[in-house]
Design goal:
The structure is a single chain. The protein has a 7-stranded mixed beta sheet, with helices on both faces. By secondary structure, it is α+β, with helices and mostly antiparallel strands. The chain has helices at 10-25, 39-56, 68-71, 85-92, 106-114, 159-174, 189-197, 234-242; strands at residues 76-79, 118-125, 128-136, 144-152, 179-185, 201-211, 224-233. 35% of the residues lie in helices and 23% in strands. The protein is globular and about 60 Å long. Bound molecules: coenzyme A. The site of coenzyme A (COA) has 21 residues, from strand 4, helix 6 and helix 7. Coenzyme A (COA) is lined by residues 97, 100-101, 150-152, 155-161, 184, 188-191, 193-194, 197.
Length: 252
């Protein structure tokens, strides 16, 4: 039996990853959390294990080539630390991102870092932070996991697609989601195009449900946008995998 203490290092995590993958293949849950007394630490550890496992089992590209050479360049998701929150807030409040999201207070992010129903990740590539991701509903009895937030510093170079594929893999393979869903402002054409091209189906619109920043001179109280609800079901994701549509996407 493997006993895990608070002083676990990355090498040990990498040794854990194959055990976890093997137990998943055998249909058993490898519950790291129950070995660790500190729940917050345990959830961070679990997320680290998921990452280690994901990297070790780097998927095959759409053309069937191994992507392991590319993988070291690919983004990875690591648990957000409280010391990352200044970065998170700065990305969220960047004028290039702000129109598309409703920024949170620091305390809301702290809650998402600590609360087990959430997963809060930093997107890193080649050791540099490039954004963050929040999942919610990770403990949902309905296995309905929400992509609560995906915000990057680098836009239009394929990073969003790469992150989304990692997140789908995490939601369906690791968190055993039945449904992976999100909402997105109707004005956010880039994100809409990305989600649609990654298999998310529009499920409905919450009409005029968010107030958006008005161009100067307009009445801010009168400018509304709709939220588009989009979702992907487990069987739809598996069908995409079978068609080779869930390989590693490139960054240009
Ligand atoms: C939305 C976001 C995560 C997408 O990530 P990204 O790295 O910029 O997107 P990608 O480069 O992977 O592009 C994905 C697709 O979007 C589409 N796209 C890119 N730029 C676009 C634009 N300006 N207008 C419309 N569609 C666009 C393209 O279809 C592209 O795929 P393709 O180039 O392979 O055909 C990122 O731009 C971001 O952080 N935006 C600000 C915050 C935000 O909107 N978050 C999402 C809230 S729901």
């Amino acid at each position: 039996m493997l006993l895990i203490g608070q002083v676990i290092d990355r090498g040990t995590l990498l040794k854990i990853a194959p055990l976890r993958a093997m137990s998943v293949r055998q249909g058993k849950v490898f519950d790291v959390v129950r070995f660790v007394p500190d729940r917050h630490f345990a959830n961070q550890l679990l997320a680290e294990v998921l990452i280690a496992d994901t990297r070790q089992h780097a998927p095959i590209s759409r053309r069937g080539h191994s992507t392991s050479g590319f993988w070291s360049m690919a983004p990875h998701l690591r648990p957000t630390m409280l010391s990352d929150l200044a970065f998170v807030l700065s990305v969220e409040n960047d004028p290039a991102n702000r129109p598309y999201i409703t920024p949170w207070e620091r305390t809301q992010h702290e809650g998402a870092v600590r609360f087990p129903d959430f997963r809060h990740f930093i997107v890193e590539r080649e050791g540099e932070r490039d954004g963050f991701v929040i999942l919610q509903g990770c403990r949902s009895p309905h296995r309905s996991v929400e992509l609560k937030r995906l915000v990057l510093q680098t836009h239009g170079r394929g990073l969003g697609r790469q992150c989304l594929r990692l997140l789908k893999q995490m939601a369906f393979r690791d968190l055993h989601a039945h449904r992976f869903w999100l909402d997105v402002k109707a004005q956010n054409t880039r994100a809409l195009a990305l989600y649609a091209s990654e298999g998310f189906l529009e499920e409905g619109r919450l009409r005029e449900s968010v107030r958006v920043t008005a161009p100067s001179g307009e009445d801010p109280a009168g400018v509304w946008d709709s939220l588009v609800v989009m979702g992907l079901l487990d069987r739809e994701y598996q069908a995409r995998r079978a068609q080779g549509l869930e390989g590693v996407a490139g960054v240009v």
